[in-house]
Amino acid sequence: MPTRAVVFDLDDTLIVEVSYAMASLREALGTLPDVDPVAAEQPALEAVRSVWTRGPDYERCVALGFASWEGLWSTFEGNHHSVAGLVEWAPTYRDEAWSAVGTVLGIDDPEALAIPAQRFEDAQRRGHPIIEGMHDAVAEVGARHPMGLITNGPSDIQHLKLEQAGLAATFAAEIISGELGVGKPEPEVFLGLLDRLGAAPEASIMVGDSWERDVEGALAAGMSAVWIADGRTPPDDRPRVTVVESVVELVDLLD
Q1: Which DSSP string do the residues of 65-85 spell out, in sequence order?
Q2: Distance between CA 228 and CA 231 in Å, rounded?
Q3: Which of 103, 126, 228, 231 is the most buried (most CB within 10 A)?
Q4: pLDDT by residue (tens digit) across 232-244?
Q5: Distances in whole angstroms, Cα of residue 172 to Cα of each of 106, 195, 206
Q6: Please, are residues 228 and 208 in contact by the beta-carbon 8 Å criterion?
Q7: Average pLDDT of span 28-38
Q8: What residues have CB less than 8 Å from 151, skipping those under 6 apart?
Q9: What CATH architecture is 6-16+129-253?
Q10: Interval 51-81: pLDDT, tens
Q11: What are the DSSP E strand ranges found in the chain?
């Protein structure tokens, strides 16, 4: 019988990512005088994205799952050579992104904008919250099954998240899209990770919150999938896909 491996996503599966990034953005915007951080959140995010989409490696960033807000605090060091240019571009991107934020908020003062820029980075580097009950669930799964991790994102910040969440030594094999130069949902990412685990796709499960990247990618590689719904409705009813609300429910699904 092939080894039954369990492969996890990181962001918004084991740790809180998107909502924490937005909370960090509101915290940063709150340092600006006469700015309502809640009202300013969406215009600021759109301004940041407008700069991000003009970047020289934007299409590669989409493929690797690099988000615009990650560019506001990642050094982009340690990544695949195909995105090596991001290391040099990152400081320019951050300056232009926060300048764009200033434009939509009516602030034309680089010194004033340097304050939220630093506050956002500091907030992100404090450590992302973990999903409640995650550590116990992962430990119980790991006691019964080989475990791997596949996460899209830049090398430096994904490693930092793992360390701060106490997950750095948890998985038998890990793939970070920025390091590999290929990201989910490409089947080769899943198959490469399973090869490291010595596990067959048909006997392996992918656990993640992204239907497109985690579920569709796993199915294309011949795996089963567990989708973390977190209150959302599944976009499709697919064989070999189980829907749960949180990673903690995974324990009851595995023998």
Answers
A1: T--TTGGGT---TT--GGGTH
A2: 9
A3: 228
A4: 999 988 899 999 9
A5: 50, 12, 15
A6: yes
A7: 97
A8: 9, 10, 11, 158, 174, 175, 176, 177
A9: 3-Layer(aba) Sandwich (3.40)
A10: 999 998 999 999 999 999 999 999 999 999 9
A11: 6-8, 147-151, 173-176, 205-208, 224-228, 241-244
Place of tokens 């799952």: 65
Taking the CA atoms of residue 29, residue 166, residue 13 and residue 42 in that order, the dihedral angle to the nearest 10 degrees is 0
Radius of gyration, alpha carbons of the chain: 19
Tokens 């039954």, residue located? 4
CB 207 within 8 A of CB 218: no
210 vs 228: CA distance, rounded Å: 8
Domains of the chain by residue range: 6-16+129-253, 18-125
- Rounded-to-integer distance, Cα 106 and Cα 215, Å: 42
Instruction: Tell if the pTM clears 0.70, that is, is over it.
Output: yes
